[in-house]
Design a protein that fits this description.
By secondary structure, this protein is α+β, with helices and mostly antiparallel strands. Among the domains are: about 130-160 and about 205-305, no CATH class; about 315-460, Four Helix Bundle (Hemerythrin (Met), subunit A) (Up-down Bundle). Helix content is about 55%, strand content about 10%. The chain contains 15 helices and twelve strands. The chain has helices at about 5-15, 20-25, 30-40, 45-55, 55-70, 85-115, 145-155, 160-170, 190-200, 225-245, 310-325, 340-350, 360-385, 390-415, 430-460; strands at about 45, 75, 80-85, 130, 175, 205-215, 250-255, 260-265, 270-275, 285-290, 300-305, 335-340. Strands 4, 6, 7, 8, 9, 10 and 11 form a seven-stranded antiparallel sheet that branches. The protein has a three-stranded antiparallel sheet with strand order 1-3-2. A two-stranded antiparallel sheet has the order 5-12. The longest helix has about 35 residues, at about 85-115. About 40% of the residues are buried.
């Protein structure tokens, strides 16, 4: 293979782009890349390829036929396959481009690091400030509840993730992507819905001010642009001011992963944080201000004023909020389904989508979040029932029982599909997927029953 193609040859190739596009399309599928990568190690028979890629027999046969038809793979003997010269050349070219791209991203990150830390380390002590009462992230799957709950506790509020999930309505909502169970489901909500969630949280004792940068950061993974870096720098200065002048923690989206965490201070140009890392026994190392993983947007929440709510009114509003979120009578993004119907969508994906197209990470993560949400909702309704002795108490307990049963079923679901992180694909056999789908449909019935009990409790409450 030539190491370089001169400019005239390149121009000639790209004046007729159809052939180039067709060649790139031939391998433009993760399963086909896995197949080509395996064959790069040597000849393999069909069963070996199927075992390595975990594709179904039909899916693998379709991919192999396509690769043979496009001249990237050849059948050496019956049932045995090898790469063609074109296949090897295409892999080499793709690998070279990919590695150079990754190297450029690393170099850019290092350049940014030098740019924003220059003069801070050379014999000088880094500027450092930590809030007087450090907030600790509370253990949970729904990171919003863990981060907000931890920050509020540091500000003197007697609360936990049950209070945050229940008051906000967040724990009652089930939200899944259409056509494929994406891990974004629990957090992929429009701004209007998040505003309702924040309003519910404020009943716990503090008003909140939200900062929103309405785009993913960075727009291209691992490559913040100079403009994006400036956005992150401005936010960093705003958070520094909050730490210095108000001595309060800030909740920020995308500190370690696309999850919420707590900023307790700063050191040099880095955030001092508390995130889910502490729960999984990883060190809470400072995070450079531009090294965010904020998919969808950057969210930051600042705690402003103490408020004292009317307890009876706040409880009634919390129940109304729970019903709205449980029924998904809140804004839902176009490519998502909310409420009890989300469970049917999820079940359909498990039953109908081909195994190689399933998203194990998304399925297992959303499963863990929904299981936790059912448990939090049950505990919150039980707390309301214990606080009030009227007729509404009976209906609240019945609703709590439905959520408790639903949570138990979702725990069974998580045992079928235990959580694996990104890139750690678990098994999604059809029998398991059908079993999981059956569980989801049972949970839907319990969700609907819970809503009816909550509505009855609200009617009784209004007559008091």
């Amino acid at each position: 293979m030539e190491k370089e193609i001169d400019e005239k040859k390149l121009q000639g190739i790209f004046e007729s782009p159809a052939g180039v596009a067709e060649l790139l399309r031939s391998a433009a599928h993760p399963a086909r890349i896995r197949i080509l990568g395996l064959l790069l190690q040597g000849k393999r028979n069909f069963s070996q390829i199927m075992q390595h890629t975990r594709l179904s027999k039909t899916a693998l046969a379709n991919h192999m036929s396509h690769l043979i038809r496009k001249g990237l793979v050849t059948r050496v003997t019956r049932g045995e396959y090898d790469l063609t010269v074109d296949g090897k050349e295409l892999l080499n070219a793709a690998a070279s481009v990919y590695m150079n791209s990754s190297r450029r991203a690393d170099e850019q990150r290092e350049q940014l690091h030098r740019l924003y830390t220059e003069g801070l380390i050379e014999g000088k002590k880094l500027d450092r400030k930590v809030v007087s009462k450090k907030a600790e992230y509370l253990p949970c799957w729904l990171s919003y509840t863990g981060a907000i709950g931890g920050a509020l506790k540091a500000l003197g509020v007697d609360c936990d993730i049950v209070d945050v999930g229940g008051r906000s309505g967040y724990s009652f909502l089930i939200n899944v992507s259409k056509g494929r169970t994406c891990p974004s489901g629990p957090t992929a909500l429009p701004e209007g819905t998040w505003k309702q969630i924040h309003k519910g949280v404020e009943a716990l004792g503090w008003t909140m001010e939200a900062y929103v940068y309405p785009s993913s950061f960075p727009a291209v993974e691992g490559k913040p642009t100079p403009k994006e870096v400036e956005v992150a720098k401005n936010l960093f200065e705003k958070i520094k001011k909050e730490i210095e002048e108000r001595d309060r923690p800030v909740v920020l989206w995308g500190l370690v992963a696309p999850e919420y965490g707590i900023v307790n201070g700063y050191e040099g140009n880095s955030y001092i944080v508390s995130t889910f890392r502490s729960i999984i026994k990883q060190p809470e190392t400072p995070i450079i201000f531009y090294d965010l993983k904020a998919a969808g947007c950057i969210d930051a929440f600042f705690f402003r004023d103490k408020v004292k709510a009317d307890a009876l009114k706040a409880d009634r509003e919390a129940l109304k909020n729970a019903i709205r979120f449980a029924e998904a009578k809140v804004p839902i993004l176009r490519n998502y389904v909310g409420g009890p119907d989300a469970l049917d969508e999820w079940a359909d994906v498990l039953e109908k989508l081909l195994e190689e197209e399933q998203d194990y990470f998304g399925n297992s993560y959303v499963g863990a979040c929904v299981a936790e949400g059912r448990a939090l909702s049950a505990k919150f309704l039980e707390r309301l029932a214990n606080k009030h002795s009227g007729k509404q108490s009976k209906h609240l307990r019945e609703a709590a029982a439905c959520y408790e049963k639903g949570g138990g079923l979702m725990e069974e679901f998580t045992k079928i599909f235990p959580f694996h992180g990104p890139g750690q694909q678990g098994k999604m056999k059809l029998a398991d997927r059908k079993k999981g789908a059956g569980i989801l449909r049972k949970v839907k019935v319990l969700e609907q029953e819970a809503v009816q009990h909550m509505k009855k409790a609200l009617v009784e409450w209004r007559t008091l």
